[in-house]
């Protein structure tokens, strides 16, 4: 007969362990167990959480999934699925809050942390723009274009329109490479120059173009390629 977690020694129960020793003391499976609260018929919550980690390749794999992937998992109902996506969104919003109002030049880590978390696991190419004021503070960001697995159609006029809505003085262009490789393509160089030229007509500067890949990024500015 399956023993309930309530019958486990107190020091082995995930919630009690968290309160006594802190979140750092919990394994990935135990953290998921705290989130889910209960397992499935014939499987306690920690065993269920371990099976999810194995199936999707760890926490990052779980958080990178789309809802359709979870619907195939026995025991992962609507409530648990919603919890997973809520946790992912909370993490992204916390990173975004750290980035907004920061000086782009002085806080590169806050910027790359958010961009990596937001774009690294996307299956399609997303073209994002960061909008900055005269003091180079980030005042907003927006996903402007979404493409196929290897390209997104980018229109400079739409970027300028959004920049004027934000009253931005400068921009940072960002997109991901679903392949994980960050080396710019010929098209990346061409669209960067096209956007830069278009923005100059309305006195808006393009400070950088950042490509996000697999735990790495390419900065046009850092490589003197802008």
Fold topology:
Elements lengths: L13 H8 L6 H9 L8 H12 L2 H5 L3 H4 L7 H22 L8 H12 L6 E7 L5 E9 L9 H11 L3 E7 L9 H15 L4 E8 L4 E3 L7
Parallel strand pairs: 3-4
Antiparallel strand pairs: 1-2, 1-3, 4-5
Helix pairs in contact: 2-3, 6-7, 8-9
Under the CATH scheme, the architecture of the largest domain is 3-Layer(aba) Sandwich
- Give the number of helices: 9
* Order of helix and strand elements from N to C terminus: HHHHHHHEEHEHEE
Helix content: 40-55%
Specify the structural class. Answer: alpha+beta
The biggest sheet, with number of strands, parallel, antiparallel or mixed sense and barrel status, is: 5 strands, mixed
| Content of β-strand | 15-25%
Number of strands: 5
Question: At the third CATH level, what is the topology name of the largest domain?
Answer: Cytidine Deaminase, domain 2
The number of distinct structural domains comes to 2
- The end-to-end distance, rounded to whole angstroms, is 65 Å
Shape: elongated
**What's the oligomerization state?**
single chain
Q: Which stretches are low in confidence, meaning pLDDT under 50 for 5 or more residues running?
A: none
Q: What's the name of the CATH homologous superfamily of the largest domain?
A: Cytidine Deaminase, domain 2
Task: State the strand order across the main sheet.
Answer: 2-1-3-4-5
Which CATH top level class of the largest domain fits?
Alpha Beta
The Cα radius of gyration reads 22 Å
- The mean pLDDT is 90
